[in-house]
Amino acid sequence: MTTGTLLLVPNTLDLGAETVDLQEVLPLGVLRRAAALTHWAAEDARSARALLKRIGAVVPLARPLQEIAIVELPRPRKGSREAVPAAEWQALLAPALAGHDLGLVSEAGLPAVADPGSALVAAAHRAGVPVQPLTGPSSLMLALAASGLEGQHFAFVGYLPQDAGARATRIRELEGVSRRLGQTQLLIETPYRNAAMLAALTATLAPATRLAVSCGLTLGAGWNRSGPVAEWRTKPQQMPERLPAVFSFLAG
After folding, report:
1. What is the dihedral of CA 8, 62, 52, 100, to 10 degrees?
2. Is 220 exposed, middle or buried (0-12, 13-18, 19+ CB in 10 A)?
3. Domains in the chain, please, with CATH?
4. pTM
5. N or C: which end of the chain has fewer CB within 10 A?
């Protein structure tokens, strides 16, 4: 039996904050591939159905939405730090092992990048299931391109600690790494904590360190700003609570 392919299907970057025209963000070829899929794996089935409904308005779905199988990615046991057993990820690949193409979709942007879907991709490789990423927006790459910072040597560090003291310590550590290696540091935060993150960065980083923020990428209300921390301090920037943002900095 021929094995199906795990298709990494990109999502928009709006996170429900603003509805965008899919054809302005995702190539028509990607929408057609997605519309043909009848088996999906997703972080949240409800948001995956919402995306499929939007896709169906552009390209007819292969089956009625209620007949499309969507299985949610497994989560660690509540209160446990143990990883999800490999067998649970393997079970999600059943459609592909039975010969059906399987779509993997994230809540925003490219699946498996800063996303739990990476474990499913790893399971696919172990099981011999082909993996094919489809073209779409990546907030990290778009933000890096718009920052004007070092684009050949960079690191994505994810989320920082929520505790103010621990967060400041981590920022200083990352600034030291950036200064020593000449490496751009990229990080993200939950939208409603964007203002607190920007305040922490401008208060902790050295005045000469270059700080960039990309907010609401691909959205009509989106913007990009980059400059020395000293400039951010004299010209504060208001951060919206609903738009996702990417923060990056490069020590001077």
Report:
1. -30
2. exposed
3. 6-133 (3.40.1010.10), 139-250 (3.30.950.10)
4. 0.88
5. N
